[in-house]
Amino acid sequence: MGRIELSGVTVMRGGRTLIADVDMALEPGRVTVLIGPNGAGKSTALKVASGVWRASKGTAALDGRNIADFRPRELAERRALVAQGASLGFPFTVGEVVMLGASVPGFGLDASPEIAVGALATVGLAGFEARNYLELSGGERQRVHIARALCQLRAARRHGAEGQIILLDEPTASLDPAQQTQVMALCRALATAGLTVVLVLHDLNLAAAWADVLVVLAKGKVRAVGSPRDVLTDDLLASVYDWPARVNTPPRDGEVFVLPHHARDMSFAGSDAGRDVRRG
């Protein structure tokens, strides 16, 4: 299956509550996107859903079984995580970084080079196997880590793994528009193939265009869940982001998109800064 369910999840770190009483169902065959302002709890929810963090209260379950009860190898066969700002400080080749995704004992490392080549081609980096990872651009590094996650899942699938999940935290942050589209199209293809696909995004228009389900978080709580058409409203965006935006619908296909109010009509809490600079 590959269904992840968070039930009443609260996470506390350093005396702070990062998320509180979060309920969330992440379904196979769908692209679920978590949106919300900085500090809303999106990455925290993703870490709990992946099993990287344990909930302080409540449960995270994969196909009805508490994620905390999975052995590390079991979990590695079922889910892959691309963390926010994932990086490495060693001069590995790109191929070596991608093959790290299949380095769990029992995956069959003899097949990893072949799988790594295919994963790199999937993210548009064919022929990069021998390149030095440290010499890549930020966007290229991001795609290498997505390829690493794909390598992990494909290697596990060769050994019979089913009901797989991929979780990505801001996977498009360093990418140009064409690469963003490529990554989102890959996510759609993975969902169509039956995987559970979960992303954190800040770009509301990317989220609106590609998500089956949006989960809106603010101040550590879930504020709304549903389709982009149902969730994205002027009032919700104003409330969650404290940002005057306008949700629009093009006549061609009815997909929603978001535009900010004209810059000249917007105020900024530090709007006296310009005058202060000119005085200086």
Strand segment count: 12
State the end-to-end distance: 63 Å
Q: Shape, please?
A: globular
Beta-strand residue percentage:
15-25%
- Which class best fits the helix and strand makeup? alpha/beta
Uncertain runs are: 268-280
Q: What's the gyration radius in Å?
A: 20 Å
- Number of DSSP helices? 10
Tell me, rounded to a whole number, the average pLDDT: 88
Reading side by side through the largest sheet, how are the strands ordered?
A: 6-7-8-3-9-10
Task: Tell me the series of helices and strands, N- to C-terminal.
Answer: EEEHEEHEHHHEHEHEEHHEEH
Quaternary organisation:
single chain
- Biggest beta sheet attributes: 6 strands, mixed
Helix content: 25-40%
Topology:
Blueprint: E1 4-13, E2 16-26, E3 31-35, H1 42-50, E4 57-62, E5 65-66, H2 72-78, E6 79-82, H3 94-99, H4 112-122, H5 138-158, E7 165-169, H6 177-192, E8 196-200, H7 204-210, E9 213-218, E10 221-226, H8 228-231, H9 234-241, E11 245-248, E12 257-260, H10 273-279
Parallel strand pairs: 3-8, 3-9, 6-7, 7-8
Antiparallel strand pairs: 1-2, 1-4, 4-5, 9-10, 11-12
Helix pairs in contact: 4-5
